[in-house]
Design brief:
Keywords: NADP, Oxidoreductase
Organism: Robertmurraya siralis
GO molecular function: oxidoreductase activity, acting on the CH-OH group of donors, NAD or NADP as acceptor
Protein name: Glyoxal reductase
Largest sheet: 8 strands, parallel
Helix content: 25-40%
Distance between the termini: 39 Å
Structural class: alpha/beta
Family: Belongs to the aldo/keto reductase family.
CATH topology: TIM Barrel
Shape: globular
Strand order of the largest sheet: 3-4-5-6-7-8-9-10
Number of strands: 10
Number of domains: 1
CATH superfamily: NADP-dependent oxidoreductase domain
C-alpha cells in the first residue's frame, strides 16, 4: 500500500505513476488553476491531471513552472477530446496540448471517451502508439472505456493501454471493469472519486469517518487506494488539497472496506460511455 503522496504504482511498461494526484476538471483557466496547481505541488503532490476540454492546460503549465519543482519529478496527464479523434487530428491535438502546457513531453496521454465509432478510437489509438514510440509521451491509456471497448481496442492494438481512467466511487464500484483491468495489467484510475461531493453525507461513510477521526472524503480516497485504484480528487482550496492527501497514516479495516463496497448501486454522476457521442460538446 502506498505510504505517502509520492508513492507510485508501476504501469505495465515500467513507468511509475503516482497513486494520488490533483484533478483540475472545472477549475477555471487563469489564477484559479495556477494557484491550485502551485498549492498541490507545494504540499507534496507530484501528479497533475488535465485535459484539452478543461481549457486550463496553459494555467496548469504556468502553475508547474511557478512551483519551482523540476518537470521530470512530476507526472502530468492530458487527454485528447472527442472532436479531435482520428489519426492526424490526434497528433495535432497532442502538439496543441504540449504547446499550451509549455512542455516537450507528457507522462500520460489518454483518449478521453470511446464514443460510438470503434474505427475512430482505433485510429486515435494508433496515433497514441506513435507518440509513445516517438518518446513524446511516457505512457498511453484510455478514459471511460467499458470492458467491451477495451477488448475491442486490444484486439487490434500493438500496445495495450497502460491506464483506464473512469468514474469510480462507492456508488459505482466498477467490479467487472476492475477485475478485467487487473487481469490485463491496466491500471484503473478514478475520476470524480467523491461523486462530486454527493457521497460526503452518506451515513455509512460518515459513521466510518467518525470511527477513524477522518473526513468522509479521506475515507473514500483511502478506499480507492486500498482497492489499488489511482485517484485524482479535484479541489481549488489549499486546506482541502492538503486534507484530501492526508490519508497515508491509517488503514481501513477489512470490515469497513466491505461496508464501503456494499454501497455500490452502479450509479453514475457523469455520462455513460456507451451513450456519450464523440463530437458532442
Amino acid at each position: 500500500m502506498p505510504k505517502n503522496l509520492q508513492d507510485t504504482t508501476t504501469l505495465h511498461n515500467g513507468v511509475k505513476m503516482p497513486w494520488f494526484g490533483l484533478g483540475v476538471f472545472k477549475v477555471k483557466e487563469g489564477s484559479e488553476v495556477v494557484e491550485a496547481v502551485k498549492a498541490a505541488i507545494k504540499n507534496g503532490y507530484i501528479s497533475i491531471d488535465t485535459a484539452a476540454i478543461y481549457q486550463n492546460e496553459e494555467g496548469v503549465g504556468q502553475g508547474i513552472r511557478e512551483s519551482g519543482v523540476a518537470r521530470d519529478s512530476l507526472f502530468v496527464t492530458s487527454k485528447v477530446w472527442n472532436s479531435d479523434q482520428g489519426y492526424e487530428s490526434t497528433l495535432q491535438a497532442f502538439e496543441t496540448s504540449l504547446q499550451k502546457l509549455g512542455m516537450d513531453y507528457l507522462d500520460l496521454y489518454l483518449i478521453h471517451w470511446p464514443g460510438k465509432d470503434s474505427a475512430k478510437y482505433k485510429e486515435t489509438w494508433r496515433a497514441l502508439e506513435k507518440l509513445y514510440k516517438d518518446g513524446k509521451v511516457r505512457a498511453i491509456g484510455v478514459s471511460n472505456f467499458h470492458v467491451h471497448h477495451l477488448e475491442d481496442l486490444i484486439a487490434d492494438a500493438e500496445i495495450k493501454p497502460m491506464v483506464n481512467q473512469v468514474e469510480y466511487h462507492p456508488h459505482l464500484a466498477q467490479l467487472e471493469l476492475r477485475d478485467y483491468c487487473k487481469k490485463q495489467g491496466i491500471q484503473l484510475e478514478a475520476w470524480s472519486p467523491l461523486k462530486q461531493g454527493q457521497l460526503l453525507n452518506e451515513p455509512t461513510i460518515v459513521e466510518i469517518a467518525d470511527k477513524y477521526q477522518k473526513s468522509p472524503a479521506q475515507i473514500i480516497l483511502r478506499w480507492d487506494l486500498q482497492n489499488e485504484v489511482v485517484t485524482i480528487p479535484k479541489s481549488i482550496k489549499e486546506h482541502r488539497i492538503i486534507e484530501n492527501a492526508d490519508i497515508f497514516d491509517f488503514e481501513l479495516a477489512p470490515e469497513d472496506m466491505a461496508k464501503l463496497d456494499g454501497l455500490n448501486k452502479n450509479e453514475r454522476v457523469g455520462s455513460n460511455p456507451d451513450e456519450f457521442e464523440v463530437g458532442f460538446q
